[in-house]
Q: What sequence folds into this?
């Protein structure tokens, strides 16, 4: 294209650089996002600032456009992959600097269910929002969930199911938490095609998340409330 | 071959089979036929009551075959035979059980007299079925009971069946023994015996009474469809379909499994419902042609695995979750009465085998109907429903998979979706210039663009039905047409740059006005929303990805032929299915709808018992692929969300798909540069 202008990263001010990072994230351009993250770090910006003002800010827009039907699954996955590439650089640095954490989530598809595309999307969007996500895959029993919870000590437990016949297992997991007196320790989010709010309420989950964008919003909100209460 | 026949034996040639043999003088044509392996229909066994064994003698010298055939080479017809042939208006024929061989003859066996008949299905694809039913009838005269002879009536019946028909090692249904003695004595020890698989006597009727009928049924989760067939001729006498009453307990399969899981008597309720429905179906099919359900001697059932479990009163609970274990994968024969099915009380039912947890007897039935395993062509067969079943292969290898497409194609999760019923929009065309739609609704032939509506139009000129919603085929067409008319971008998003009074915006989400207030029954517009489009994208991507995964596994880039099975498949226009990217690229002439292939397959298995063995073999030969756990599935799924696909090409849609749609979906560095100057949409 003739009106293309070559962008020289070093010539951009930091606000423009973060903006560009957000736009490239939106377009799912992983290589470019990595270049921009390195550029920002090279200018002495803290990993936490690059994460929140660059990547998370960019993913926020992806989330909004997904919710509004502008973007769909393929575009969001591309953006999430670019986010992941950026995070690969930032994560070790964040751990070193002891930057504040947004939150941690253990997520999995429940026992009997082997479908995981929806859950993977939630997982990537949550990472995009800055959460640390432990994705334990498909066909998870109570024991599988508890093992991951004990190991990672998350704020949030996320459960997914695609089948009408497997979603009742979510209640089994929640009842187990109750029996152990640990229900109040976690925010339990549930989602999947056959679910609805009434079901989530019935099994006493904290919230039903209709899609990945809603999951991110809900997680942020509930974590904030929880941290405020502590 | 010598033209001179010896005094004692003669050359007999049967046409059209071409089988020949040297036959002893004085044998009947029927006996000769049996000797050389030509099957001529005969039930009465030579007492001139069934009139099935008619053959024609071809007179003349046939150089090609080295035979001189003449009428005098058969014994003349008796007065009785002549009278019978005259009555049947078949004076050009002979009864093969009567005519004895006296010289060389060329015998033509007409279609209706061949024991293995062929019927051609009158439909999209011509299916040829060899008639080899499991149930056959035999007429015998049984030795009378005498003092000092102790074989018993059943023993004497066995002796007659052996000497007359060569049937040995027979068993008898105990219920037949209840009336055997009385029946034998009714018409001076002459009876018509109905035998299943030349193995079990299931009925005995006094005198000569032919007539054996069978029922082939496909139990779908929505519809139960049955064909009542004459087991001797293969004719379909009646076709009936009824709603599956289990719908009360759950719309789709998983809801039914769920109902059985969560209700103690859930299974019993659903089992009772389907048995009642089958009895009703049998009764109405039989009565419509002057028969009784009692005339049905055998039934063959196909259906998805959940339906078959419930039919057999087996809890389908294990099918509700991985690893989706079946109670039994193999075919089965059981007595209809054991399930409370009120066909003939000694009749059997045959259940076709399944392939895997969610690829059932319906898929196997469709496979034996299409028989891709006998062909070189690489065939893709898809059955579109809430759960799509996919089969791919040819005679070298076959694979199958199931893919959860969800209920979007049935109109659920669609703002104005509905089931196929009068008033449902089923066909859609959108003008590229005006963006206005013309559509057709079920129950009205005229396209909406030609409708005359208004108070000044007389009622008979107005359409029979106004639009009330959009059914599955309509949804496929409208989304594909919206894409072609530039209302949708290839990524499925409403084109934000389009200005049209047919597109309105609900916040940032577009909505397309498919039917205006005037065109609908309730005076409200019918729209297609962004979320509708998204739901269709997900559903079609699941199907496409499943098919693609099988193609990758098999190492093929393209398929030679695609068949769309299932009731829904019949209503989908292949072109639109391809534009949408529901199915992969293929020569459009090689894409066809085959209707209820599962029902056809059940009928084939009913009429030809060897097909049952074939079904059992195929069911275990097909490799089932669990797509959901394949590491490539997610990539294939995501790629298939675009219209028609993000990367796959559709050369057969050249000239139909807009050129620029192809380049649009390619992103690269240039995208970044464009985005650089793009005003952010917020």
A:
């Amino acid at each position: 294209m003739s009106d293309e202008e070559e962008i020289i990263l070093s010539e951009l001010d930091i606000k423009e650089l973060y903006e560009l990072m957000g736009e490239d994230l939106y377009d799912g351009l992983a290589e470019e996002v990595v270049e921009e993250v390195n550029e920002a770090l090279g200018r002495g910006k803290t990993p936490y600032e690059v994460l929140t003002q660059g990547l998370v800010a960019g993913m926020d827009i992806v989330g909004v456009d997904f919710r509004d039907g502008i973007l769909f699954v393929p575009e969001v996955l591309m953006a999430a992959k670019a986010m992941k590439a950026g995070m690969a650089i930032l994560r070790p640095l964040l751990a070193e600097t002891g930057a504040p954490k947004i939150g941690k989530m253990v997520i999995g598809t429940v026992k009997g269910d082997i479908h995981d595309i929806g859950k993977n999307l939630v997982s990537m969007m949550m990472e995009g929002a800055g959460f640390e996500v432990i994705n334990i895959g498909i066909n998870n029993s109570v024991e599988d969930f508890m093992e991951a919870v004990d190991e990672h000590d998350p704020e949030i437990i996320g459960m997914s199911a695609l089948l009408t016949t497997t979603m009742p297992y979510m209640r089994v997991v929640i009842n187990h938490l109750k029996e152990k007196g640990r229900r109040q320790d976690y925010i339990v989010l549930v989602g999947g095609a056959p679910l609805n709010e009434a079901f989530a309420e019935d099994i006493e989950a904290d919230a039903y998340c209709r899609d990945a964008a809603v999951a991110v919003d809900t997680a942020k909100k509930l974590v904030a409330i929880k941290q405020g209460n502590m | 071959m010598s033209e001179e026949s010896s005094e004692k034996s003669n050359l007999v040639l049967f046409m059209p089979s071409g089988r020949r043999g040297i036959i002893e003088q004085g044998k009947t044509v029927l006996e000769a036929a049996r000797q050389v392996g030509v099957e001529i229909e005969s039930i009465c066994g030579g007492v001139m009551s069934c009139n099935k064994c008619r053959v024609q003698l071809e007179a003349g010298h046939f150089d090609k075959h080295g035979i001189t055939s003449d009428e005098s080479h058969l014994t003349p017809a008796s007065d009785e035979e002549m009278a019978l042939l005259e009555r049947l208006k078949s004076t050009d024929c002979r009864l093969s059980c009567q005519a004895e061989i006296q010289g060389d003859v060329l015998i033509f066996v007409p279609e209706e007299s061949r024991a293995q008949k062929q019927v051609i299905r009158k439909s999209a694809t011509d299916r040829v079925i060899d008639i080899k039913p499991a149930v056959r009838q035999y007429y015998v005269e049984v030795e009378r009971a005498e003092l000092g002879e102790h074989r018993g009536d059943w023993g004497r019946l066995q002796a007659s069946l052996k000497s007359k028909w060569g049937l040995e090692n027979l068993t008898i249904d105990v219920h037949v023994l209840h009336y055997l003695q009385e029946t034998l004595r009714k018409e001076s020890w002459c009876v018509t015996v109905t035998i299943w698989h030349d193995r079990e006597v299931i009925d005995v009727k006094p005198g000569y009474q032919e007539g054996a009928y069978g029922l082939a049924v496909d139990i779908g989760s929505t519809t139960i469809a049955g064909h009542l067939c004459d087991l001797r001729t293969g004719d379909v006498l009646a076709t009936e379909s009824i709603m599956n009453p289990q719908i009360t307990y759950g719309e789709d399969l998983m809801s039914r499994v769920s109902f059985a899981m969560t209700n103690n008597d859930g299974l019993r309720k659903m089992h009772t419902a389907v048995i009642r429905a089958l009895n009703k179906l049998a009764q109405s099919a039989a009565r419509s042609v002057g028969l009784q359900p009692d005339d049905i001697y055998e039934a063959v059932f196909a259906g998805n695995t959940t339906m078959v479990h419930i039919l057999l009163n087996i809890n389908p609970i294990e099918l509700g979750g991985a690893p989706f274990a079946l109670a039994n994968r193999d075919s089965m024969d059981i007595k209809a009465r054991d399930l409370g099915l009120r066909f003939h009380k000694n009749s059997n039912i045959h259940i076709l085998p399944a392939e895997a947890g969610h690829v059932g007897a319906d898929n196997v039935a469709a496979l034996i109907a299409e028989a891709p395993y006998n062909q070189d062509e690489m065939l893709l067969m898809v059955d579109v429903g809430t759960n799509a079943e996919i089969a791919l292969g040819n005679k070298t290898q076959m694979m199958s998979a199931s893919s959860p497409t969800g209920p979007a194609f049935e109109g659920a999760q669609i703002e104005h979706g509905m089931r196929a019923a009068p008033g449902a929009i089923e066909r859609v065309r959108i003008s590229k210039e005006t963006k206005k739609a013309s559509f057709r609704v079920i129950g009205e032939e005229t396209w909406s663009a030609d409708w005359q509506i208004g108070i000044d139009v007389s009622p008979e000129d107005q359409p029979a039905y106004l639009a009330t919603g959009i059914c599955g085929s309509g949804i496929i067409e409208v989304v594909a047409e919206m894409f072609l008319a530039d209302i949708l971008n290839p990524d499925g998003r409403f084109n934000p740059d389009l200005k049209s009074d047919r597109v309105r915006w609900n916040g940032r989400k577009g909505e397309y006005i498919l039917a205006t207030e005037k065109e609908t029954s309730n005076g409200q517009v019918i729209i297609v929303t962004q979320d509708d489009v998204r739901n269709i994208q997900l559903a079609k991507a699941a199907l496409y990805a499943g098919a693609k995964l099988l193609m990758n596994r098999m190492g093929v880039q393209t398929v030679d032929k695609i068949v769309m099975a299932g009731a829904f498949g019949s209503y989908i226009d292949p072109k639109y299915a391809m534009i949408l990217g529901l199915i992969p690229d293929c020569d459009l002439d090689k894409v066809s709808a085959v209707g209820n292939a599962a029902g056809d397959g059940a009928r084939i298995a009913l009429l030809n018992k060897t097909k049952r063995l074939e079904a059992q073999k195929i069911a275990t030969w097909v490799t089932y692929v669990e797509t959901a756990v394949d590491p490539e599935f997610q990539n294939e799924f995501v790629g298939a969300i675009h219209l028609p696909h993000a990367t796959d090409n559709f050369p057969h849609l050249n000239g139909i798909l807009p050129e620029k749609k192809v380049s649009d979906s390619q992103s690269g560095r240039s995208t970044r540069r464009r985005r650089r100057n793009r005003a952010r949409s917020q």
Summary: The first helix of chain A runs from residue 14 to 26. Chain A touches chain B through 44 residues (CB under 8 Å). The beta strands of chain A are 104-109, 132-135, 156-160, 187-191, 207-208. Residues 14 and 142 of chain A are 47 Å apart (CA to CA).
